[in-house]
Write a structure and sequence with these properties.
The protein has helices at residues 2-23, 30-53, 58-89, 98-101. With 102 residues, the chain is an all-alpha fold. The termini are far apart. The relative contact order is 0.09.
């Protein structure tokens, strides 16, 4: 019973801490922050897979599957967003005209 309350306490503490940290990040640092958070989300995915591997009851298995799916989607989406942000910083090339292509 105590471990459930301890896990809930850690979850709430992490949620409030994460919110406070992220809300104070300047806009210019969002790309490096996204890159770093992808690393953390990868660790969350590994943790979800380990928890799913130790699941015994159908409820634990269902929660584990949901955790793996959500964390995998979070990792993939984070990399897509990071790639799109990095594209904004690349120098644009002028398009070749049709006369030059011939």
């Amino acid at each position: 019973m105590i471990t459930g309350f301890l896990a809930l306490y850690i979850f709430v503490l992490a949620a409030f801490t994460g919110y406070e940290i992220i809300s104070r990040v300047p806009v210019i640092l969002h790309t490096p922050l996204m890159s770093g958070s992808n690393f953390v989300h990868g660790i969350v995915l590994v943790g979800a897979m380990v928890a799913l591997g130790h699941a015994e009851t159908p409820a634990e298995i269902a929660i584990g599957v949901i955790a793996v799916l959500l964390s995998a989607g979070n990792v993939a989406g984070g990399y897509v967003v990071t790639e799109r942000m990095l594209e904004m910083f690349k120098a644009s090339r002028p398009a070749a005209s049709k006369d030059q292509a011939r």
